[in-house]
Amino acid sequence: MKKFLHSILITFILIVNLYAFSASYTYDNIDNLAYVVAIGIDTSKSNNLKISFQFTDTSAYSNDSSSGSKGTIINTVEAQSLESSVNILNSYIGKNVNLAHCKVIVFSEEIAKAGLSNYIYSLINNSQIRPTSNIVISKCEAKYYLENSISESEKLITKYYDVFPNSSDYTGYISYVTLGDFFNQITDKTRSPVAILGGVNAKTSDINSGSEDASSILASKSTVVGERGTENLGLAVFKEDKLVGELTALESLCHSIIDNEANTFLISIANPRNSENTIDLSASEYKKTSINVDVSNGSPYINIDVYLNAEIMSIDTNTDYLDEAYLNEVATSANNFLASQISKYLYKTSTDFKSCINDFDKYASIHFLTNNDWENYDWVSSYEDAFFNVNVYTSVNSSMLLTES
After folding, report:
1. 218/115 Cα distance (integer angstroms)
2. Model-level pTM?
3. What is the pLDDT of residues 16-49, one digit of tens each?
């Protein structure tokens, strides 16, 4: 009996050790997973979707990797849906494709013009895809955008995808738009979505010959010449779920200012004492934008007050930047410039795009006693006839390190 019990004990210990120290080969084991960092969605000639999946190539970061490696692997599948494409790809690569670490979802312009509702609903319904994934509308094929998504300053593509949307905080030239944001906006009957506008840099110095201001450019048409492929500048504007237009970098800044999304930003204004020169100002809000909407006369009358602090960044030897009178002139020039640009942006969205992409509806709805009254007012149609009054109040300081004693 003792020998029998001893044999059972040894067998039990062997079984426990076997499971404890041997690798598990279940389908969800980390060795059997392939993590997607970005998804690109295009149309195909066969009326299917052409879906590209970008993976990190870990071998590119090893000591013996070639210096020309981009550090990513892209596989493209033609299928009727995202779910079908993942299923096909599982068989192709011999691993279970996992979308939990997807950072960016890229749609081509062609897809976006036809409408994104079905795709957005499917993506938000996928338990693996996080609502914090950024939405990009590419002016080129989405696959081409992914192929050129390399960064000169970030070696890891995942880090680059994490960082680039943050430029909205200090430029205002894009907005931080996530899958969750986009879903909330297309399900909102009174506000339309925006998305980051992306493209591939032309890498040529004469792409924008002439005197075009750099802040009025779009993605893929910037004045930058560099080795990095993709660039994200401007916003894609939607009417409901369909792409209807684009905003330049400067127009996107106006959008950010109204929504209080830009912490700091740079603007170039006319020098009030020398019309041939411009002055660069670093600006930031010192008070939240004040918005009031009057609907008493039928068409919305929207009053917007913007409050900014600014410092002069560019100086010359012929100007006294400590002179209070001159600083007041600069402030007036900045106020006039921004008020004009914001007004142009607002009439472009209301008249040309017929799309309300700011939060004006919440300021209008407070004037209605019931939901039925608000719905009968039909904000979406009324916004097309809106009038805007924009006031900018800027306090300008010299940024000179040396001051008069």
Report:
1. 22
2. 0.85
3. 555 555 444 454 555 677 899 999 999 988 888 9
Residue length, the chain? 405
Structure tokens at 237: 């504007």
Rounded distance, CA 222 to CA 230, Å?
11
The residues pairing with 33 across neighbouring beta strands, listed in sequence order, are 96
Cα angle value 150/152/153 (rounded, 5°): 115
Return the bridge partners of 265, or none.
283
Q: Are 56 and 37 in contact (CB under 8 A)?
A: yes
Residue 220 confidence (pLDDT): 67
**Helix, strand or coil, per DSSP, at residue 188:** coil
Tokens, residue 306: 């913007």
Determine the distance from the C-alpha atom of residue 116 to the mean position of all C-alpha atoms in its chain, rounded to a whole number.
16
| Residue 360: C-alpha distances to residues 36, 177, 181, 293, 348 (Å) | 37, 18, 17, 7, 15
| Residue 247, CA distances (Å) to 30, 233, 289, 335 in order | 42, 9, 21, 21
- Is residue 33 within a helix (H) or strand (E), and if so which, with residue range? strand 33-43
Instruction: Answer yes or no: are the C-beta atoms of 71 and 157 closer than 8 Å.
Output: yes
Report which secondary-structure segment, H or E, holds 86. Answer: helix 82-93
Tokens of 376: 């009968």
- As given in the structure block, the two tokens for residue 63 are 């000591």
Instruction: For the chain, list the domains and their CATH numbers.
Output: 30-250 (no CATH), 264-405 (3.30.300.210)
- Do the beta carbons of residue 56 and residue 35 sit within 8 Å? yes
Identify the residue whose tokens are 């960064």. 151
- DSSP secondary-structure letter at 384? T
Distance CA 310, CA 109 (A): 37
- 86-103 pLDDT, tens digit per residue, is 999 998 988 899 999 999
